[in-house]
Specification:
Structural class: alpha+beta
Helix content: 25-40%
Largest sheet: 5 strands, antiparallel
Number of helices: 10
Radius of gyration: 29 Å
Strand content: 35-45%
Mean pLDDT: 86
Low-confidence stretches: 1-27
């Protein structure tokens, strides 16, 4: 009987200890309901810095006027009411809490501010991290081949991440920009952050990928195995941060090509002095993808094709995404002046009421869209393109400008 009571006591104690230190602590630290992280009963995001509550009386809310000054509004934060805070701001010598939707709360002894607990922030980070991976993996799984899956992940990361130039200028080895967490959650990274994010996602797709580093270059990228062959993939250098569409100069490249300075319409800088162990990238199956940029003045990706322009022949060509087949997409009436990002600027002469007119149009580089920019019956003496603006100067000295 004593043994049974002792066993019962030990089991009871274990259950009580587990109940006290287990589930309540987990619930207090990370509560997810309706796919949202809750803190003090409110759904929080990465932008939340804390919350504020009016203690003894209601407090007026302020809004930012057209002149940038904070003005008292007719709205109030009721006594005992709690609002999420997204930032602390200062107007002159006065501190305010930004509550979102152009609402500000003046800091005072009547306002109690509470910072977002570290465990809640980590909970939000973890959720965003997992959700981002799940979304990209789901999209990649819809693709049939390993090539298509790697291409999808390459594009998804280039679109999701912005290069962290501030970290490059003032390096901090502990910065999240060096990690997949920074790349996937905060959408900012330097090369090793891009590379780690690529490794994490490709591992979920059961595609082998490893980080390659070059100390002299102070750089890192991926060595990816596609259909039994290794290739270099540098998403960091292909990502144009929205200044222009993502490029594919460093996508699925062999050791031999990666070491070269490839010159042409674009100069593709080399990679050098990297360490990849015994792994070699010898296949040049996809070499034509990056070589499109040395052979063509403009390369535009749309759907399942790359589009390039031969200005001398006034012809648009399309190349399959693997770079292995090129055919004529369309012929252009008129003369191609230049190709700008995804558009081609075309000039042609048309007769209207027996009068010659110069018609300037822009055509989508896939040849499927055409918009007339202007027409003039004056002779032009100069056409220039700079800073996304096309400038036409007529014989009379009149200037016409078009934003592209």
């Amino acid at each position: 009987m004593k043994k049974f009571w002792l066993m019962f006591s030990l089991v009871t104690a274990f259950v009580l200890v587990f109940a006290f230190y287990g589930k309540p602590a987990e619930a207090a630290g990370c509560i997810i309901k309706n796919n949202q992280v809750l803190w003090d009963g409110k759904a929080v995001s990465l932008k939340v810095k804390g919350n504020a509550v009016a203690l003894k009386k209601q407090e007026a809310l302020y809004t930012k006027g057209a002149n940038g000054k904070l003005l008292k509004s007719k709205s109030y934060l009721k006594k005992g009411s709690k609002r999420l805070v997204y930032a602390k701001v200062k107007a002159g010598t006065v501190n305010y809490y930004f509550l979102g939707s152009n609402r500000y709360l003046k800091a005072s002894s009547n306002i109690k501010y509470k910072s977002l607990p570290t465990e809640i922030k980590k909970c939000v980070e973890k959720k965003v991290y997992n959700d981002t991976i799940t979304k990209i993996v789901k999209g990649a799984k819809a693709k049939k081949t390993q090539f298509e899956k790697v291409l999808y992940v390459h594009d998804a990361l280039a679109n999701h991440i912005t290069y962290d130039w501030a970290e490059l200028k003032n390096p901090n080895a502990y910065s999240l920009s060096h990690k997949a967490l920074g790349a996937l959650v905060y959408q900012k990274a330097v090369c090793d952050g891009y590379t780690e994010a690529m490794n994490v996602i490709l591992s979920k797709l059961h595609i082998e990928s490893k980080m390659v580093t070059s100390v002299p270059m102070n750089h890192a990228w991926n060595l990816v195995k596609v259909d039994g062959q290794y290739y270099h993939v540098d998403v960091t250098w292909d990502d144009q941060d929205g200044r222009m569409p993502t490029v594919y100069m460093y996508f699925l490249v062999s050791d031999k090509e990666f070491k070269k300075t490839r010159k042409g319409f674009y100069t593709i800088a080399p990679h050098y002095s990297w360490y990849a162990g015994k792994t070699k990238a010898v296949s040049e199956k996809y070499a034509n993808i990056s070589n499109l940029y040395t052979k063509n003045k403009s390369v535009y990706r749309d759907g399942n094709y790359f589009y390039t322009v031969d200005e001398a022949k006034n012809t648009i060509y399309k190349t399959t995404l693997d770079g292995r087949k090129t055919t004529v997409a369309s012929k252009i009436d008129g003369n191609i002046f230049c190709a700008v990002n995804s558009w081609i600027i075309v000039m042609e002469t048309k007769y209207i009421n027996d009068q010659p007119y110069l018609v300037i149009s822009k055509i989508k580089q896939n040849g499927k869209e055409k918009y007339e920019l202007a027409k003039t019956n004056s002779y032009y003496r100069k056409i220039e393109y700079a800073n996304n603006t096309l400038t036409l100067t007529t014989a009379e000295g009149k200037t016409l400008k078009f934003t592209l």
